[in-house]
Amino acid sequence: MEKSHTLAWHESLELHEIVAFKSIGLMKMKTTLPQIQDNTLKGIYERGIQETEVDLQELMEFYRYVPSANDMREEERNISLLFEGDLLAFTKAGVRNYAVAITETATPALKDVFVKQMMKAIKLHDLIYRYMYNKGHYPSYDLNKLFENDLNLANQALSM
């Protein structure tokens, strides 16, 4: 990719989603690793950590091509970002999973339950999103800040 090339906005937003998801996952794996007793599972986690670190470093290189994301500053982050981001990712994945399940379900009673539970997941997602937005942790209307937060989060996950 040439340095003068800029990512499209939709590509930049997809990059944001993947980097945020992987950063939270990496932080969660690193936090969980010391608690794992089974050596095989611990080895799988260590591999997951190593591969995710490589993935993040590779993805972070693309931030130089994000439109108008200049002068990124590193900010101190606290552990609450892990908890916030984990819940946000969990609820977002849940909504997606319910949507797929609804399209694959033929039994009306089960479909009704999936729809009801998906609506609850949407409300919970909105609740955690608004919490993060109000705290300045998810500045969805300021793409430069959003991308800056991604890099800060990825760097924090890599430095754990």
Can you lay out the helices and strands and say which pair or pack?
Layout: H1 9-32, H2 39-60, H3 80-104, H4 108-134, H5 143-159
Tell me what you see in this structure.
With 160 residues, the chain is an all-alpha fold. Helices cover 72% and strands 0% of the residues. Helix 2 (39-60) runs antiparallel to helix 5 (143-159).
Give a quick account of the main beta sheet: strands, pairing sense, barrel closure: none
Structural class: mainly alpha
Order of helices and strands: HHHHH
* Cα gyration radius (Å): 18 Å
Spans of 5+ residues with little confidence (pLDDT < 50)?
69-77
Instruction: Give the strand tally.
Output: 0
Q: Total helix count? A: 5
Task: Report strand %.
Answer: under 5%
